[in-house]
Amino acid sequence: xxxxxxxxxxxxxxxxxxxxxxxxxxxxxxxxxxxxxxxxxxxxxxxxxxxxxxxxxxxxxxxxxxxxxxxxxxxxxxxxxxxxxxxxxxxxxxxxxxxxxxxxxxxxxxxxxxxxxxxxxxxxxxxxxxxxxxxxxxxxxxxxxxxxxxxxxxxxxxxxxxxxxxxxxxxxxxxxxxxxxxxxxxxxxxxxxxxxxxxxxxxxxxxxxxxxxxxxxxxxxxxxxxxxxxxxxxxxxxxxxxxxxxxxxxxx
Length: 252
What we know:
The chain is an alpha/beta fold.
C-alpha cells in the first residue's frame, strides 16, 4: 500500500530503491520542526534526473536527517525547452518572477544586464534556492538551469542559431505575440525558443536596433498596456505555453 508523502524536497543525491539520503541542517529542520514529521513518515524526493521517489524518514540528529528511498512514484519526464532571458529587477519582485517562471515551466533562467538595468548585482544562489523551492511546490521533476548574470550581448554572442528569441519590446514595430505563435504552430516547425524581456526602463534604442538585426530575433507585442518587467516575462511564458508548450492538448 502506497503511503502519501507529507512533504516534497529537492535533493542532489542519486535516487533509487534502497539508497540512503542524508539531509543537511536546513531541510532537516524543515521536516522536524516546521512540518513536525517523525521517524517512519514518508517524504517525496526528486533530483531532476531520476524522477520522483518516496522515502521514509529513518531518523533525526542534531542538524541532520536520514531517509531510506523506497518506490519510484513518477518517472523522469520531458518538459518543453523554453528559455527565459530577463533583465534583473529588485529583490522581492525578482524572487516572484523566478518562482512563477518555474511554475510556468521555464527550462532555463538567464539574467541579462542591459543599459537601463538598475540592479548591479544578482545573487544567483538565492535565485537557485527559489527555483528549488518552487519546483518542490509545483511538483516538477525537473529543475530549471539558472545562469550567472551576464551582459545581454555577451550572452547573444554565443547564441545557438537554431534557438529563436521572442523579443518583448514596448517600442518599435512588433507583431502580436499570439499571431507569431499561432503561425509557428501552423507551420509545424520544431524550433527551439527563448523569451527576452527588458528592465523597468525598457531597452535602449541602440539595443533594439542591434537586436532587430539578428536573424533569430522576432520582436513581439504583449498588448496595448505597459507591463511591469515581471508581468511581461510571465505573460510571454503563458502565451508560449498555451500555443507551443505543454498546455496545448496536442502537446501533452
